[in-house]
Write the structure tokens for this entry.
Amino acid sequence: MESNYFLNTKTAGKWHKTGTKRRAGVAVPLFSLYSSGSVGIGEIPDLKLLVDWCCITGISIIQLLPLNDVGNDFAPYSSLSTFALDPMYLKVSQIKHSDTSQYQTALQKMAKKYRPILKRINYKIKKAKIELLWEIFKSTPITGINEFGDFKAANNFWLEDYVLYKVIRELYPGTGWENWPEGLKFRDKVAIEEIRIGNIERLEFHRWMQWQLFEQMKDLKYYAAGKGVFLMGDLPFLVARESADVWSNPDLFRLNLSAGAPPDMYFALGQKWGMPPYNWDNIANNGFKYVKEKLKFAENFYDMYRMDHFVGLFRVWVSGVNNTDPSHPGSYMPPEEYLWETHGKRIIDEMISASGMLPCAEDLGTVPGCSYHVLYEYGIPGIDFQRYYKGNFAFRAPSEYRINSIAVLSTHDSSFWLNWWQFEAGTIDEKLFEMMCDKAGIEFSHCKYAKSVLFNKKLSRYGRLYWNDAVNSPQKLAEVFNRPVEAVQDIAYLYMESYGEKQKFMNYLGVNPAESMSETELMKKCIGRINSSNSIFSIQLLQEYLSIDEGLLEKMGKWDYRINSPGSVSRKNWSILLPVSLERLLELNINDDIKSIIKETQRT
């Protein structure tokens, strides 16, 4: 069996624990879920219903988007802590060592008041829930609870700095730590001690909430294990500049820099995320304790973890915090390419030794050459993203997918597959086209003319340009610009990638384009095809599975129905709601179809 190769890699011990079966999985952000008992947002115990659904459909992996405590933008990949979980995910009625029966009416009112607005999460629920938890905490005796004491002792490495940060943040609302009074900003012992003495109860409250989150997550893991379902945690690569981690350990970060992504065909000036890159030398000098403790804590909840922005372990794109000069977008750190593999392996070795969890890698974007063979050497699955996984401008056959990969139809940063098919396949981004014209030295007026000739106006919408059928070669494309193909090679490359994309995809599916097929049938065919890939895992967002249902597909088939739009700030980001409750999910007729697909593709 080809997958036995995993048992001869550097992660062999982890594979012995999980087995090397071909597995199917489901990915989901907890905030999207809801049950009849949810209060304003998906809550940790609700995930037991998703575990039950996995058992019904034959799925054996649940991948959760980050559950970290988030800031005001509620972006899970830019959190206030890489350790602490967000209290909004607590199910108040199930907190331990407390009688919550007297708060049932308050919870019912809260659920009604903060119900989702226009099918989007109302994040005011977080503040309201914490206020109620504070009332419960004040009326609950907590002395002598051994589990609470054990939790505090075991997590002292991060917990004390986190609760201090949270309390000071409450004392100075709307003010980042860099603008706190000098004594607090630089953690003067006297100033910090004053906070400890003056806020004993509030500090303990934040410890208590983290313990309650810990207990509910531990209980979830135990439940999932009993049902044969593995939990995969998505661990953010970076942490927000405004975070407990950066405030308490500034020497572990390079605060004069901002991490991001290099210029590419989609972002001409690159991306600037605002999060500080790590100071790996200082982290190494401290025995990689920061990295190890993070994984040690996560192992309480997860069997596997996804290394976000895995390629950043080799080198990360950085620019100066105050750099606004578009001619100097940034550079890699370290800059020397010959150092990248050694640099990455040093970190990966420490991560592997730190826990028994199976690591998986998000290796999308601009990928250094060393990444592929390092992942293979270590037995770590990367990501093979179907719509971009091409060769010679055609979709790769399922047999060509990497054995050490997770096959996906979409990600939290992309459109869902159906929306890609309806609104993006066979198109290019309008702003990208204009940017490339400018880069090629084409005057705006000629660019405007070319746009009218090259693209089908009726089929171009939502900022996407659909190619005219008549533009059936790169040469015809170049003729419109009165240039040789070489002079417009970036545009020609995009053309080759996207022209006739739907026809190419039908060929990949093995379907005759003339064959009449409903969108649900096409969706079912698509899920079957991705599950038949050579990849050890096939993990799809829950919405992809739900698209097999005609009624649910109709609710989700909107061009702006997505989890996140990178490079944008909008209340539509990180707020999407599932079109069906978890109780209803268990009763869907399509569950049998999903189970059949997974069985037919020899997954479990």
The chain has a mean pLDDT of 95.
